[in-house]
Fold this sequence. Notes:
Helices cover 32% and strands 26% of the residues. The chain is of the alpha/beta class and 279 residues long. It has a 6-stranded mixed beta sheet, with helices on both faces. The protein has a 4-stranded antiparallel beta sheet with strand order 2-1-4-5, with helices on one face. It has a two-stranded antiparallel ribbon with strand order 11-12. Helix 3 packs across helix 4 (134-147), helix 4 (134-147) crosses helix 6 (166-178) and helix 6 runs parallel beside helix 7. The longest helix has 18 residues, at 196-213.
Amino acid sequence: xxxxxxxxxxxxxxxxxxxxxxxxxxxxxxxxxxxxxxxxxxxxxxxxxxxxxxxxxxxxxxxxxxxxxxxxxxxxxxxxxxxxxxxxxxxxxxxxxxxxxxxxxxxxxxxxxxxxxxxxxxxxxxxxxxxxxxxxxxxxxxxxxxxxxxxxxxxxxxxxxxxxxxxxxxxxxxxxxxxxxxxxxxxxxxxxxxxxxxxxxxxxxxxxxxxxxxxxxxxxxxxxxxxxxxxxxxxxxxxxxxxxxxxxxxxxxxxxxxxxxxxxxxxxxxxxxxxxxxx
Length: 279
């Protein structure tokens, strides 16, 4: 018997009623994410990929909201929950955020508090979801920073985000996301603002930790070739809809949708180790 997916999205619609008219940011999306597997969402800016990701955690800015569909989360030992039906400000969804599902954003400085130290932010998050003492939370914060490759992690607890490089801040964001060992990690263009070498290091780090913890992952980007080595399945998104969904190899070697072919044609192509084209 095949186990059910960690996350099932069915008929998801996210709409913004504005004076200019109704914006259908996400328009009938169906997706599944399995534990230990990576689903990559690729599309141009404005395609709805980030809005779809934010809907999973119910962090859509007003007046946007989920108007239709299901977002079913299945956690070991617990009843499935439809996240889409939860109150965005209610206690049940707040408990899910960070503990069961964590998110890494594109720009850490927009997510990290500039007036609180790295340590205080990490410890606060750990204490929010785990009934442990403060010293135990500090030790876990040090462990999390060490796990993501930050040198002298105990000393770094006193640093403020602005004192760290872009790559180091992103590692702090990853440490915060993984401190509670979530079942699902959502990475929304986490390497876009980084140089190529740092991008590769961050992607390798995320892949290593995902394998270690057995997390499901949704990785969102507009850069399709970036995902070749980390994706199990790729969904191509355009104007709020999924236009193609398949394995990375099939998407690269035999794209079925005209938009996917156009998207692929915009990237330089070389043959990679897996026998498919890469940048």
